[in-house]
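Re: that chain you flagged

S.,

Sorry for the slow reply, it's been a week of failed gels. I finally had a moment to sit down with the sequence you sent. For the record, here it is as I used it:
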Amino acid sequence: MNKKRTVQIGDRRVGDGEPVYIIAEIGINHNGNLNMAKKLIDGAVFAGCDAVKFQKRTPEICVPQDQWNIERDTPWGRITYLQYKHYLEFDFSEYEQIDMYCKEKGIDWFVSAWDAESVEFVEQFSPIAYKVASATLTDDELLHRLKETHKPVILSTGMSSMEEIENAINLLGNTELMLAQSTSTYPCPLEELNLRVIETFRNKYPHIPIGYSGHETGLAPTIAAVALGSAFIERHITLDRSMWGTDQAASVEINGMFRLVKDIRDIEKALGDGKKKVYQSELSSLKKLRRIQIESKIAV
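Prediction finished late last night. Pasting the structure tokens below so you have them in one place:
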């Protein structure tokens, strides 16, 4: 008998037979503003999400050195790319406030740590889990450090071949691992979402909860990902898709997130248990419409 594929995240089990775990990816959509981050947390709570996720980087490690001094226009004026990346990072005191605010609001939080130094930083807050961003799937040093934390890890697979995914899974181990189908285009065209990879992953990795991290516009593909068996869903959340930021256009505004969560919960109810049965509510139709009747077991 196959082991049931579930992972414990905080107070929740995530996987087969469990409600879909819904993550609102705040990422860097806060634009370095703590008050905006709190508004996004409020929006995720309002929508009924289970968790919010941020991104944590050490800019000097994550930004290639040949891009450090490239200037660009930003909300903070014309500054170098390295300076811009620093403006997007929260410090310890700001993460303390995020930690307290999420606890006050009753919602989980964790991060995508983009480098080993960022893992050291976030470990100070005893996070419930970590995410491996698609861009860092081949960073063996980071994967080793995440494995050492003994925390659940969500591995996102955009930009990655099956060989690269296999290598990352082997490095992390699959005991507390979750795997997300993703395509790293922002926003992603429908033709490149390739949702059937969810089924491929479910068949290939029977002990790993499989989910979906979406960057498309609209909600329908994410709902379809649930119907295909996703145990968890991640979508970027924003206050306004027209705001400054590389991820805003591929994000979902708060009212849209509310609809998405509602639709996911409706899909969960509608999928049922897969066992064909006659429902009590069908009896009047059965008596009225079926000419030849035999004794049936009725679902109660």
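What I noticed first: The radius of gyration is 21 Å.

Talk soon,
D.
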